[in-house]
Amino acid sequence: MGRLERLTPLLEDFVEKGPPGCACIVSRRREVIYETYIGYADREKKKPISPDTIYRLFSNSKPITCTAALILYERGAYLLSDPVSDYLPEFKDMQVYSSAADKTLQVSPAKGPIRIADLFTMTSGLCYPGDSPETARRTRDVLQDLDEKERSGSKYDIRAVSRALAGIPLAFDPGAGWMYGTSHDVLGALIEVLSGKTLGQFLQDEIFDPLGMKDTSFRLSEEKRARLCCLYDLSSDGNLTRNNSMDANIRPDALLETGGGGLLSTIGDHSRFAQMLACGGLFNDEQILGRKTVRLMSSNHLRPNQLADYNWDFLAGYGYGLGVRVMMDPIAGGSNGSVGELGWGGLAGTWALVDPAEELSAVYAQQMIPSLEARYIPRLRNVLYGAL
Predict the structure, then answer these.
(1) Contacts of 196 (CB under 8 A, 6+ apart)
(2) Considering only CA atoms, which of 27, 39, 14, 62 is closest in space to residue 377?
(3) Which residue ranges form the domains of the chain, and what is each CATH number?
(4) pLDDT given for residue 156 in this prediction
(5) pTM of the prediction?
(6) Mean pLDDT per segment of 10 residues, for the chain of length 388 residues?
């Protein structure tokens, strides 16, 4: 795999023009075949990126949460077609926003229930906070209200978030479109109800302990604080500024565990998770998921009308499975990779690629917003596949 060394100058170029540091691990058939650490975890203190550096996974938490939910699926705890309200009653009789003929906003009953499959596939009508559509504005206001109450001493957990989100009319009828949002956070609440454990404890028992992911959790203990990679904001003129505003929920005394974006991990731990999926759900004699369930997870679940909403340019050629991107058309994506390649990325630039056909996985980590994912990741992917 000498051609994998082509990754090194590419990653050095990333660091020269973007994040202060980054790391990458590539594995094939349960063997690490490339590993590198470049630049700084703390630019001001000149502290280098190292194997024990801890990163905020942000949305790279999503595939882990979806894997946990699929563990329960394999145990017969629910069907993908089940209404979410069978287990989270707050989601019964949902409302939907729509525009009237005179362009005024109106609310009407949803044409059908949110189903558990809709949570996995982001077709629920739930939104992330934002300025548009109205569901996003209401979500922003509701979550800000919870944050303000916490600052006043009233802590909240993912069940409280789920109940708050259920009180907001959806952006569209369940299944009628695709929208990136809080669906996997609600999936985390579902895991808690079905398992009788907190989301963090279920992940610990069923994924982290079996895989030896000793540094992956929702909380950062005091003894590990010095290992946390600094997060930086990148300005339009290329300047980096430290961002300390996004760490409230990783404090040891926090309650909130968000399956959509709250996990911390090292690149080594993240690699173990990715290798498990690449090898059909099996890693170090621990069968986390069945091979057929991994195949279900890594199949496109979006219908044509939903795919029309899933239109991020750098994900051309991909569909969306159960919480992961799924390569459907390498030509459309300008990719030299495999049909069925899956994975996801995080807000600050963590990223994972899993290729079950090749038993190949790659994980990348940096901590910068915006992450420049659209520039970095297709290049990293193409160099990676060029080495095979």
Answers:
(1) none
(2) 14
(3) 2-52+197-386 (3.40.710.10), 72-195 (no CATH)
(4) 95
(5) 0.97
(6) 90 97 97 98 98 98 98 98 98 92 87 98 98 96 93 92 98 98 98 98 98 98 96 96 93 94 98 98 96 98 97 95 98 96 98 98 98 96 96
Structure tokens at 179: 């929208």
3-state secondary structure the chain: CHHHHHHHHHHHHHHHHCCCEEEEEEEECCEEEEEEEEEEEECCCCEECCCCCEEECHHHHHHHHHHHHHHHHHCCCCCCCCEHHHCCHHHCCCEEEEECCCCCEEEEECCCCCEHHHHHHCCCCCCCCCCCCHHHHHHHHHHHHHHHHHHCCCCCCHHHHHHHHHCCCECCCCCCCCCCCCHHHHHHHHHHHHHCCCHHHHHHHHHHHHHCCCCCECCCCHHHHHHECCCEEECCCCCEEECCCCCHHHCCCCCCCCCCCCCEEEHHHHHHHHHHHHCCCEECCEECCCHHHHHHHCCCCCCHHHHCCCCCHHHCCEEECCCCEEECCCCCCCCCCCCCCEEEECCCCCEEEEECCCCEEEEEECCEECCCHHHHHHHHHHHHHHCC
Q: Is 167 left (phi over 0), alpha (psi -120 to 50) or beta?
A: alpha
Hey, how many other C-beta atoms are within 10 angstroms of the C-beta on 221? 10
At which residue do the structure tokens 């009180």 appear?
Answer: 167
